[in-house]
Amino acid sequence: MAEPRAVTRRGDARLWLAGGWLLLALLAAIFAPLIAPQDPLAQDLMFERLPPFWMQGSEPGFWLGTDSLGRDLLSRLIYGGRVAFIVAFAAASAACLVGSALGLIAGYFGGWPDRIVSRIVDVWMAFPPVLFAILLVAVFGTGLTSVIIAIAIIDWTRFCRVIRAEAMSQARMDYVENARIAGFGRIGIMLREVLPNVAPAIVALLSLEMGIAVIVEAILSFVNLSISTDDPTWGGIIAEGRLSIHQAWWILVFPLITLFLTVLSFSQFGEGLKNRFDPVMR
Predict the structure, then answer these.
(1) Is residue 218 within 8 Å of 235, Cβ to Cβ?
(2) How large is the average pLDDT for residues 39-45?
(3) What is the pLDDT of residue 4?
(4) Residue ranges per structural domain of the chain
(5) How confident is the model at residue 9, as a pLDDT?
(6) 228-231: long-range contacts (C-beta < 8 A, 24 or more apart)?
(7) Is the Cβ–Cβ distance between 240 and 83 less than 8 Å?
(8) Domain 2-51+58-277 sits in CATH 1.10.3720.10
(9) Burial of 64 (0-12, 13-18, 19+ CB in 10 A)
(10) How far is CA 213 from each of CA 40, 259, 269, rounded to the nearest angstrom?
């Protein structure tokens, strides 16, 4: 009995640590005008490439240093979080809604709905996702809306495949047959019985997809295919930091750390929620 409790404690610790970082980053993004110490767009070449506060040559008020144009790095990271979380929530939610609905229908009903959805997923997944995203943004034009649409169009298949398998498994359970005997319709059984039992998988995938959306947006902004280059994004800061790595390592390292912790936290938070609320795991 001690081993399951130890696993539960580790899962809870992972859930709280990941949730704590995400909450901190989200609050910082929401209240960026109140928290950011400087204007993220203000340039001053007198302050270019200032080091972080603990290094010699730093200046008060620039906690993580400045970039090659004298812009405050901490303020740009905070404002860049706004773009990351908007894309994460909007794109992941759209992909989840479409993919989960199609996967649930295909997995529960089977037959020709399953064959049609499965063939569409196979064709969709034949395209390399990052190149497909770049192509879609190039077609739609740069901008936050285009990035969200591109990610949703690409990643709905991830939800569809997993939820289809989960729904197919649940459709064979005894409680589904009991609901049929009780006189419930097929749609009613799917929504009232099957959907709640695949919800933990949807939650875990949604959280994971948010992290993937953050990565894709960072890649697109890294190659200048996201929002305007004047606005701070984590990928844009990384692209600039790559050019200044030998003169100012902090411009590259801090956004990489922020991006890594955010994506990891999304993944661990989703797994923690699944383990906590999945009736099988409990």
Answers:
(1) yes
(2) 89
(3) 53
(4) 2-51+58-277
(5) 61
(6) 228/142, 230/41, 231/41, 231/79, 231/83
(7) no
(8) yes
(9) buried
(10) 23, 11, 15
